[in-house]
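Query structure, 127 tokens:
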């Protein structure tokens, strides 16, 4: 049986391999100057994970799957289709949405439970 740390390490390794296999932003989306993705997290805890911002420029890999910020969670957020839709817009585009983490995380005596972290995101593409 693989423990939570082993599962998290396996997820990170899978994401690392997939990121390295992804095309560069300048190849996948040659018309874009940058992509900015902002995350805001909320859940039932008093201190949810801090907001995150990611800015990608042409040399970066066009990989848009991000791990849940909870270290004990095995979930991830796949924004590839949303980024692709935003990139297809004729002008600089912004889009926003939200999703929930579908992973599981260890919570003390409760053991593994659904993560259910609420994730609000915004994506801005600059041409």
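Result returned for the query:
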């Amino acid at each position: 049986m693989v423990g939570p740390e082993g599962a998290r390490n396996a997820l990170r390794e899978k994401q690392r391999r997939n990121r390295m296999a992804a095309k560069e932003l300048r190849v996948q989306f040659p018309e874009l100057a940058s992509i900015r993705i902002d995350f805001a997290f909320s859940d039932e805890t008093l201190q949810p994970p801090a907001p995150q911002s990611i800015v990608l420029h042409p040399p970066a890999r066009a990989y848009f799957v991000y791990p849940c910020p909870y270290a004990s969670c095995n979930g991830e957020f796949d924004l590839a289709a949303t980024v692709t839709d935003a990139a297809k817009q004729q002008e600089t585009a912004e889009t926003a949405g939200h999703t929930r983490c579908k992973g599981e995380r260890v919570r003390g005596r409760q053991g593994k439970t659904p993560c259910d972290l609420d994730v609000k995101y915004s994506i801005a593409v600059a041409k």
